[in-house]
Every structure is written in structure tokens, then in C-alpha cells.
Design a protein that fits this description.
Blueprint lengths: L2 E2 L7 E5 L2 E6 L2 E6 L10 H19 L1 H7 L9 H9 L4 E4 L2 E4 L18 E5 L2 E5 L14 E8 L4 E10 L4 E5 L8 E9 L10 E7 L2
Antiparallel strand pairs: 1-2, 2-3, 3-4, 5-6, 7-8, 8-11, 9-10, 9-12, 12-13
Helix pairs in contact: 1-3
Length: 212
């Protein structure tokens, strides 16, 4: 049963005949009922579904970073959707017949804040150690800028997120790894944001490192 709150010409909710009314991101929408298909999905459709799932799973797992990093690019969608649209064209590499995420090309944040210079990552005593060089201050590069870090374990499909962990002046940061991580190869990222969080910077893929 459909519900009309503003008369016959107003918006409605739920099913009315062959159409469905709903509210989505501040807009009243009317869509047709979905049609069931008995046709099996084509190889291309299955491939697209697989790629969609790969990228969406990664971005959803790091939504704490994406929601901040892509908030300036939201237009009638969500930060995760904005990040998906930006990353999709360069998000995958094919090895043989299998696709995997192109980790060095993925970004969880975009903006004008200056990226870290000379950023490196290493494993030491069960910790992942990020380091970067000092930089001259400017409007988009301040000692007080806050650094965020992401460590992704593709084998275990787990993420470690440290938003606003230290300032730019610290020039290093350590992330303690779980006891079962030694031997796993991890993908590491970082980014800077202004101290008040109003301005973001492009996230940077710092590198891949194996936990020792």
C-alpha cells in the first residue's frame, strides 16, 4: 500500500500499482518495480560484479578515513561513493585470469594539503614505523597538520587505522602489529589534514612491507 501525505499530486511512499515511491538524499523518487530475469549473468557482468565487490569492500572497511577524506567531493552521494567513482578506473590490476586491487594507486583522501616528503615505512620488532622529512611551512603545510595512517593486511582482510595520530613535525609514527601478523605483507598509507580538520590532503601510498 502506498502512502500520500500531500494529496494526489504530492510525493508518496511504498508501492502504488507498478511504481514505488521513496525518499533518497532529500529527493522524492518514483521508480518502476524491478523485473525478475531468468537469464544467467554474462561473463562481463560477473566480472563487473567482482570488481565492484573488491573495491567497495576495501573502501567500506576504511570508511572512517574515506568519510573525512572525500567529504569535499560529495554531490548527492556519500563520501564512499565519491571515493569509489574516483578510484574505479585505476583500482585494479590483472594477474593471469584474476583481478586484484592496485594498492599503490588507491586513495582514501584528496585535497590541497601538502603530501609528506620522503615518506618511508619499515618493520621493526613487530611494529610498522612510518617516517618522513621536515618541510618548509606554507599555507598548506604547517607543523601542526595532523597525520593519519592506514595499514592494510590483504591476507587477513583487516585494516588498522590511526586518524590524526601525530602532527607533521613529529616526522615518525609507530603502529603496533597483532601477534599473528609476522610474515604478512602489508600495504601502508598516510595523509595530512589541517589542525582544525577543515582541509584534507591527498593520501599517499608509502609502500609494502613484510612484518618481521
Amino acid at each position: 500500500m502506498g502512502i500520500q501525505k500531500s494529496g494526489i499530486l504530492g510525493p508518496f511512499r511504498n508501492k502504488v500499482g507498478a511504481v514505488v515511491g521513496r525518499r533518497h538524499r532529500g529527493q522524492d523518487l518514483m521508480t518502476g518495480l524491478p523485473r525478475k530475469s531468468n537469464k544467467p549473468a554474462t561473463a562481463k557482468q560477473l566480472e563487473t560484479q567482482h570488481l565492484f565487490g573488491l573495491l567497495n569492500s576495501f573502501l567500506s572497511a576504511i570508511d572512517r578515513l574515506v568519510n573525512t577524506g572525500f567529504k569535499a567531493f560529495v554531490k548527492n552521494n556519500s563520501p564512499v561513493n565519491a571515493a569509489f567513482a574516483y578510484n574505479y578506473d585505476h583500482a585494479f590490476v590483472k594477474e593471469g585470469s584474476e583481478y586484484r586491487l592496485n594498492y599503490p594507486k588507491l586513495m582514501y583522501s584528496r585535497g590541497h594539503m601538502v603530501r609528506p616528503e620522503g615518506a618511508q615505512v619499515a618493520s621493526d620488532g613487530g611494529k610498522i614505523v612510518f617516517s618522513w622529512l621536515p618541510q618548509n611551512q606554507s599555507a598548506y603545510c604547517q607543523y601542526t597538520d595532523q597525520a593519519s595512517f592506514l595499514v592494510y593486511n590483504p591476507v587477513k582482510e583487516k585494516v588498522m587505522i590511526r586518524p590524526g595520530a601525530v602532527n607533521r613535525y613529529a616526522q615518525s609514527f609507530e603502529v603496533e602489529m597483532p601477534a599473528d601478523y609476522p610474515g604478512d605483507a602489508l600495504h601502508c598509507y598516510m595523509s595530512f589534514a589541517s589542525a582544525d580538520g577543515k582541509m584534507q590532503g591527498d593520501s599517499l601510498y608509502v609502500g609494502e612491507v613484510t612484518v618481521v
